[in-house]
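writing this on my phone so excuse typos. first protein, seq and then structure
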Amino acid sequence: RIVGEVMDRPLRPADSNLPDMLMAVVCDGMGGMEHGEFASRTVCDELVEWAASTAQRTTEGMKPSFLDALKNAEKTIRETKARSGTTMTAVLAADGCWISANIGDSRCYRVSGDEIWRTRDDSPVEDMFRRGEITEDEMNTSAISNLLDLYVGGGDSLRTTFSDLGDEWDRLALCSDGAFGYMPVIDFRELVRNADTPDMITQTAYARGSTDNITVLTVDAL
């Protein structure tokens, strides 16, 4: 279920009674409070409008128009507040298929039993981790942990990464970096797996020292 949003019951990943399309999205603005709020709100508003109007109802068919919506948002951001930008992580479901869309360092986590997968950040520290130069925990403490390679507003929207989430999972969790950046990786993974509500994830992150704005949204399977 998307807690606090439109769905009033748990969802099966391949539920034939799902709406024609489901979208969950989290954005984390950059460029200071005013600029970041404008950028993140612009992307969310554009994607909500897209979801309400798109005629495509397959995940593959939705990708081009989803990117068009991001391009429109990016154009508005660059023309209105050129120094702003935002990360974006989203989950799209249609025709029994689930995919994630990601740009920046907000993440989608997929919990499947004891296994947890996450989207890949578009950042120098992610690249260093993947090359084996630092640990995943050291990504959070690096002096360049706040640097991004890609984000919406920087001309990068077409480089959004889509990933197939499959239909064998227990939970999807979308979150901004303030949720996971202030505690060991193993602790956050256990939190994502076991937290009863998204608010529990948020409050635990603050209790562990997070000073960032935090947004967490979960989609739970039966």
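second protein below, same order as before
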Amino acid sequence: MMTPGSMRKHYTEHDRTIWRQRLPLAAEQARAVERKLLGDTSDPEWHYAYHHFHDNCSTRVRDIIDLATDGRMHAETAQLPGPGLSFRELGRSGFSDEHGILLFSDVFLGRPADQVPNLWEVMFLPDFLRGEVERRFGVAPQTLYTRKGPPFPTDPGFGGRQWFILLALAIAVPLAVSRWRGRGQRAAFAWALTVLVFFGALLWAVALVTTLREGRLN
């Protein structure tokens, strides 16, 4: 198990900015948080099924804060709009320099990823959680370490989507040329069907084995 000191050392070594916010909790609220944390860590086999949007390291902190406030944080923020961006758009910003992940998410994450989160849901991202904690509890983030490298990119641009354009051209051009020349149409159709059937079979395979709604509703 990582201690606060070892965790801070880990993120410092990876040159990640570290913030701390001290929650002004009453004694009983603090005890509730303590019981939750001790209960989770007392079982060496304890784990959870990570979900990037709905159950990650940020939502776990959010849920514990909600526990300390007797559910008021959820009750109040779930009725408020978020920034107006979809889960997919928010995720793309966080993986701006990971074009492989962006391409994978475009292909395999379906309609649920295009839903627009409310203020409660958008706190799956630490920046939004940190800002909402500051607003609700009046505790400004205390910077413990500031990243020394260049800022992480936030604009994904095409983010690998140029490959979709190239793939579309690779299918359309042979079909157009074969039609124009009046020959080779069978080979062009065979090539197009091979590519499309491959991707269709791949999507069905993922949908059959995944437990994620985003992978099934594609």
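The mean pLDDT is 92. thats all i got for now
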